[in-house]
Design a protein that fits this description.
The complex is a heterodimer of chains A (322) and B (293). Chain A is mostly helical and 322 residues long. Chain A has a single domain, classed as ABC transporter involved in vitamin B12 uptake, BtuC. Chain A has 14 helices and no strands. The C terminus of chain A is likely disordered. In chain B, helix 2 packs parallel to helix 4 and helix 10 crosses helix 11. In chain B, the strands form two sheets. In chain B, strands 1-4 form a two-stranded antiparallel ribbon. A two-stranded antiparallel sheet of chain B has the order 2-3. Chain B has a domain of 205 residues. Chain B contains eleven helices and four strands. With 293 residues, chain B is mostly helical. Classes of the chains: A mainly alpha (322), B mainly alpha (293). At the A-B interface, helix 5, helix 10 and helix 12 of A face helix 4, helix 9 and helix 11 of B.
Chain lengths: 322, 293
């Protein structure tokens, strides 16, 4: 009884915090205190959070290293733009089409490739990501290598905010469900999971499809903010960008992915003029994190209210909790 | 038919280059089960060392190639000691992510210091001659690339089959722990493997400089990936497999750009990879070994 009430309290608190965050930013935008430059970076931050959280589902929770996330983002972007700009449907239909197209692509690619393990899977997904890009470059309907321009800007702060929250809520709930436990068991020990009766292929493909679908969402939001999309934008360096966020935040930590995505986006803003330096820093992050803290900054832990309580009240509570 | 033969000839020199790069992938994989993602970028560094020794020191192409091979051998050993050795006992995914990091690092540190500008291999280093044999056009560049690649492969075969170090390498790749118990210094063998693999990549880098004429800091990515595909095609970890796979990839690529669309040139490599992984993941020459629990 009390437990239920506490859960409600927690839920209510989360809703209030999110609503407050939304209102504050909305107010800042409406009053013009947040200029266009910051708005662009805010949008990128939201998109990167969606990308990192969804890739984390595949790489972190399922333990299947995928290097083709940008490919799914590309499919989402182009599918949504075809629906809105070329066919004239509303933005909502475009977003759904983008997600659906990316998820279907994830299924088509996932079923054969997820039979592969570890580094082979990584290279195969990298290959598929590049194939998606090359194929998109060769379709005249969507402009070939030049891509599509003149996309109307429809990704507003409310849309972005809702999309980001939905992504996080869906993925967190998925991880905490029985599906999530099956998915994590695949990461921990695939053979043991299979012996215990977990249909490992099914859960791997499921995680891959959901992750790809949300990458499609990120692509749709991206396309409807920056007026123009080119297949070249979604090359494997973009996939590596997302990988850096996931690795830095911690393979298997959603809060880690969110924090790392926000941090890396901010880092990009600071280093905007020094593209090469930015990539050198990325590279060093990958190497140093893997050598000294291979599980990422947060590991597979989540940053929750309880961990804040622990930090504030010091060792006392944490030892008592044990 | 003549055109087909011509494409085949063109493909052979490209294939020789891929084969040299693929050898490095396969050797490193055979010893420490790591896909050295940075291998293509070591090749890029080799191409730059070759370029500078021709344009600044004025050396001829053979000296430039040897110079590139020596410096990249050192680079390979340093990379292994700094980045890969601490991870030898961690998960393969961690090692792979580190390798991606090393790859990005080499690319962008070169980009930072040498800018993204394309550099053209000086013509004076290798004046182009074209010969016509039975209606086929063969350039002296192609001959140089194929001959030097074959010589390097023969030397490699000699090292692996006839020398004590080669024997130790084979032992480590067969069973690292048993080799260690037999008194083989695994660390030394891993270093030697990286040195040899990187030297071959550097030679390939100089050849790519000759083949395409232009070099840039990101040139290593695509040939690196294609050479990896070649290594998988032949059966990763197998030296003859890498050679055959490399030549096959080169020929296939020239055929695709000759008859199909050159836009699809890069996609074909990945298509081959996915097909081979799905049909016969151990490669053309690989034997199937069951998974151990």
């Amino acid at each position: 009884m009390e437990d239920k009430r506490r859960r409600w309290g927690k839920f209510l608190l989360e809703v209030i915090v999110l609503a407050a965050l939304f209102t504050v930013v909305q107010y800042l935008i409406a009053t013009g205190l947040l200029n266009r430059y910051y708005q662009i970076n805010l949008t990128l931050m939201g998109i990167n959070i969606i990308l990192a959280v969804s890739l984390n589902l595949i790489n972190g929770f399922t333990g299947q290293l995928s290097l083709g996330h940008a490919g799914f983002m590309a499919i989402g972007a182009f599918a949504s733009v075809i629906m809105t700009t070329l066919l004239g449907y509303p933005f909502m239909i475009g977003i759904l089409a983008g997600m659906l197209a990316a998820a279907v692509a994830g299924f088509i690619i996932g079923v054969p490739t997820l039979r592969l393990k570890g580094d082979y899977l990584a290279i195969a997904t990298l290959g598929f990501g590049e194939i998606i890009r090359v194929v998109l470059q060769n379709i005249d309907y969507i402009g070939g290598p030049a891509g599509i321009s003149g996309i109307s800007k429809m990704t507003t702060w409310p849309v972005l905010f809702i999309a980001t929250v939905i992504t996080i809520v869906v993925i967190v709930n998925m991880i905490n469900s029985s599906y999530g436990r099956a998915i994590i068991s695949v990461r921990e020990d695939e053979i043991a999971a299979e012996i215990m009766g977990v249909n490992t292929t099914k859960y791997k493909v499921l995680a891959f499809v959901v992750g790809a679908g949300f990458a499609g969402l990120a692509g749709a939001l991206y396309a409807h903010y920056f007026y123009i999309i080119k297949p070249e934008t979604f090359n494997f360096l973009k996939s590596f960008d997302i990988l850096v966020m996931v690795v830095l935040g911690g393979l298997g930590s959603t809060t880690g992915a969110v924090i790392a995505a926000a941090f890396i986006t901010a880092l990009n803003v600071v280093l905007q003029e020094y593209a090469a330096v930015r990539m050198i820093i990325y590279a060093l992050i990958l190497i140093i994190v893997m050598i000294y803290r291979p599980q990422g900054l947060l590991g597979n832990k989540e940053l929750t209210r309880r961990s804040f309580d622990k930090i504030w009240s010091g060792r006392h509570v944490s030892s008592a909790n044990k | 038919m003549l055109e087909f033969m011509q494409q085949l000839v063109n493909g052979l020199s490209l294939g020789a280059i891929y084969a040299l790069i693929a050898l490095g992938y396969t050797m490193v994989y055979g010893i420490i089960m790591l896909i050295n993602f940075a291998h293509g970028d070591i090749m890029m560094v080799g191409a730059y060392v070759g370029f500078f020794s021709i344009s600044i020191l004025g050396s001829n192409i053979v000296v430039a190639m040897i110079f590139a091979m020596v410096s990249c051998a050192l680079l390979g050993v340093v990379i292994e000691k700094v980045a890969y050795k601490p991870l030898r006992n961690s998960t393969r995914i961690a090692a792979l992510i580190t390798a991606i990091g090393v790859s990005l690092f080499l690319e962008y540190i070169t980009l930072y210091f040498l800018t993204a500008q394309q550099r053209v291999y000086p013509d004076s280093a290798f004046p182009l001659h074209k010969y016509e044999v039975l209606g086929l056009v063969i350039s002296n560049k192609d001959i140089f690339i194929i001959v030097s690649a074959v010589i390097l492969m023969i030397i490699l075969q000699y090292i692996i089959k006839r020398t004590k170090t080669g024997k130790a390498m084979r032992a480590v790749s067969l069973d690292r722990e048993a080799a260690m118990l037999m008194g083989i210094s695994v660390d030394r063998i891993v270093s030697v493997t990286f040195a040899i693999g990187s030297a071959l990549a550097a030679a390939a880098g100089v050849m790519i400089g000759l083949y395409y004429n232009a070099i840039n800091p990101l040139m290593g990515i695509i040939p690196g990936l294609k050479a990896f595909v070649a290594a998988v095609l032949g059966g990763i970890g197998l030296i003859p497999g890498a050679m055959v796979g490399g030549f096959l990839m080169g020929v296939l690529e020239t055929l695709v750009s000759g008859y199909g669309s050159s836009m699809y040139r890069d996609a074909v490599a990945f298509g081959v990879l996915i097909l081979i992984l799905l049909i016969k993941p151990t490669g053309l020459f690989g034997k199937n070994t069951g998974e151990k629990v």
